[in-house]
Amino acid sequence: MKDKSKVVFVGLDVAKDTLAVSVADAGRDGEIRDWGTVSTTPQSVERLLKKLAARFNKVEVCYEAGPTGYGLHRHITAFGFSCSVVAPSLIPIRAGERIKTDRRDAMRLTRLLRASPI
Questions:
Q1: Which residues pair with 34 in a beta bridge?
Q2: Residue closest to 76 by CA, chosen among 51, 99, 42
Q3: Phi-psi map region of 69: left, alpha, beta (phi>0 left; psi -120 to 50 alpha)
Q4: Are 45 and 75 in contact (CB under 8 A)?
Q5: Which domain CATH number covers 63?
Q6: Sign of the CA dihedral 73, 78, 79, 83?
Q7: pLDDT digits (tens, 9 = 90+) for 9-27
Q8: What is the pTM of this model?
Q9: Which domain holds residue 31?
């Protein structure tokens, strides 16, 4: 069921063969949750976007620049979604935070996208 008023923020951590996906509800107290991983193939990305479009009215996507270049950006914007590409060097990291996993990176991107002014 589609909630017409609902906005969702999606963070993608891009690796060579997989995308780690996390989503966050709008609002400061909105829940941030892991959505899982999908393949980087165009068919998998299309399936993911269709699932998100079916559930939410507005979808904002961001991912860290990496091995996919701007191909992923073009694919996402072709479906009419807003997509931001973030330079890895511009992502703030807390001092002493050394554990780096795809899932945590996707959640961090989601949190930053939700906090940024649109």
A1: 22
A2: 42
A3: left
A4: yes
A5: 3.30.420.10
A6: positive
A7: 999 988 888 999 999 988 8
A8: 0.84
A9: 3-115
